[in-house]
């Protein structure tokens, strides 16, 4: 009887796990973003920017926010490491694609990497938050210009471009709130639940 009630209690109160994949070119600011998101959601300071090193494997962050368990996967963005991105597609509810707004010369490369990921059937229906990161920097491009250069209007996925700074935290709360709401609106959460 106790275990039945406990099971029911757990079922009602257990927070849904939403898995969010963070992608983008090397040095775009993915790990800095992960640390800032952890800080914003938990109130505890994340790693100092100076102690963040290029990611070779995977960084994982787990926080409770928006009545869910959010699990972030931050992968390395160096060219030679992008081939492992697709191992995480099938299990992800949504994507954050981080773009360095101070490096317009790398937008074509970012576009190629982004479109290659989105071409995968395993990401079907996944909402994508594009973070125009490093907006705190004096030489940052305005997001509207980047949107055009990335050719995002061709995309059919639920999409938002957000001005952001992983250093100051600008735009991160709004972006995350939008992403979680989109995950809940999309069929993808139900699709992933069926696969379990
Ligand atoms: N000004 C500014 N610098 C940033 C911001 N986000 C990241 N950086 C800097 O950009 C550099 C790269 O940041 P990382 O977070 O390591 O980038 P990454 O995308 O994780 O890179 P890889 O792990 O190699 O794929 C570091 O020097 C960061 O301090 C930002 O919002 N503003
Ligand atoms: Mg990194």
How does the SSE layout of this entry go?
Layout: H1 2-13, E1 16-24, H2 30-42, E2 58-65, E3 68-75, E4 94-100, H3 107-118, E5 128-133, H4 143-150, E6 159-163, H5 172-185, H6 188-195
Parallel strand pairs: 1-3, 1-4, 4-5, 5-6
Antiparallel strand pairs: 2-3
Bound molecules: guanosine-5'-triphosphate (GTP) and magnesium ion (MG).
Guanosine-5'-triphosphate binds at residues 24, 26-32, 49, 52, 54-55, 76-78, 133-134, 136-137, 165-167.
- Kindly state the percentage of residues in helix: 25-40%
pLDDT averaged over residues: 92
Distance between the termini: 27 Å
Topology, number of strands: 6
Characterise the protein shown here:
- The protein is an alpha/beta fold and 196 residues long.
- The chain has a single domain, classed as P-loop containing nucleotide triphosphate hydrolases (Rossmann fold), CATH 3.40.50.300.
- The chain is 34% helix and 22% strand.
- The protein contains six helices and six strands.
- A six-stranded mixed sheet has the order 2-3-1-4-5-6, sandwiched between helices.
- A hairpin with a 2-residue loop joins strand 2 and strand 3.
- Bound molecules: guanosine-5'-triphosphate and magnesium ion.
- Magnesium ion (MG) binds next to helix 2.
């Amino acid at each position: 009887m106790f275990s039945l009630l406990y099971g029911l209690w757990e079922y009602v109160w257990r927070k849904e796990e939403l898995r969010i994949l963070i992608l983008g070119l090397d040095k775009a600011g993915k790990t800095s973003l992960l640390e800032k998101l952890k800080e914003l959601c938990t109130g505890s300071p994340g790693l100092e920017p100076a102690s963040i090193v290029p990611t070779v494997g995977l960084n994982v962050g787990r926080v409770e926010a928006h009545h869910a368990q959010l699990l972030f996967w931050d992968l390395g963005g160096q060219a030679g490491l992008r081939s492992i991105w697709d191992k995480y597609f099938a299990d992800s509810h949504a994507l954050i694609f981080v773009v360095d707004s101070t490096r317009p010369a790398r937008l074509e490369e970012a576009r190629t990497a982004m479109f290659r990921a989105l071409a995968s059937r395993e990401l079907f229906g996944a909402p994508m938050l594009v973070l125009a990161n490093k907006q705190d920097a004096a030489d940052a491009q305005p997001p509207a210009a980047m949107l055009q250069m990335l050719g995002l209007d061709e995309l059919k996925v639920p999409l938002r471009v957000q001005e952001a700074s992983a250093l100051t935290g600008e735009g991160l709360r709004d972006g995350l709130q939008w992403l979680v709401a989109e995950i809940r609106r999309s069929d993808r959460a139900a699709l992933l639940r069926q696969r379990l």
